[in-house]
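User: I'm writing a tutorial on reading structure tokens. Could you give me a worked example: one chain, its sequence, then its tokens, then a sentence or two explaining what the tokens reveal?
Assistant: Sure. Here is the example chain.
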Amino acid sequence: MGQNSAAIPILSVVFLLVIMSSGFSTGYMPVVIVHGIFDSSVQMQDLNDMITKAHPGTNVTIPDLFTDAESLIVPLWSQLPKFRDAIEKVMATSGDGINLICYSQGGILCRALLANMTNHNVINFISLSSPQLGQFGDTSYVPFLPQLKEDVYKVCYTQTGQDHISVCNYWNDPHHKKEYLAENVFLPVLNNETFNSQSKVWKDNFLKIKKLILIGGPDDGVITPWQSSHFGFYNENEDVIEMHKQEVFLRDSFGLQTLYNRGAIKMYNISGVEHTKWHGNKTVFDCCIEPYLT
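And here are its predicted structure tokens:
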């Protein structure tokens, strides 16, 4: 009896070691974080730290691709294949699915990734202060572009702009809609605003997500209008039209209305957060990110 009792703790330790060495699951889905323009994995480390503190053992991946200036000078369609490869490697290790957190420019890139990955297993897509319906505002942070937003289309809606400046891929000038539709090779295509032979496939792929979490706020200072982070945008008078009245929603061109109707869209409007602070803000993490990482 005494020998058997002494053996039990030893067997328990051995069992625990075997379980751990065979890939013991923490119960938390893997998380992939995609950085924004002029960023790298370094800037996303604060978000990584909050995730692993709240959910110890979570597998967090931050692809260090197209970092810093390269995030600007490489067009988004050209960035997509390498990001897809990196994310698919994570998905392959998690049969239960993964969660995707994409910041700023990374949010639009992730939407394109989801549309183009037929076999993705992304559960929650968290779009963190991302100009999902485009940008029409301050360009002081972008070399090569005119300082006046009214003049940016002259550069962006050219082949040079589309091929060499990522911001041009989602530049949406409400006063030059015809040129936007004709010359922008990324956002209107992704939105199915222009002809796309893959539109149904892309829509079906995007709709595989369980939840779409949209986070933004009025003090962002970069995303313009800030409501673009919630799929709102300017009309020709620069009045902000909310998501529910946008043509892409009413037509359900890429699945936004379908997601809304099934209760899959969660919107968070957080005041007092500047654009470069979103990924390190504990309040934002606690209320709007952490609940979706189980």
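What the tokens reveal: The two ends are 43 Å apart (CA to CA). DSSP finds 13 helices and eight strands in the chain.
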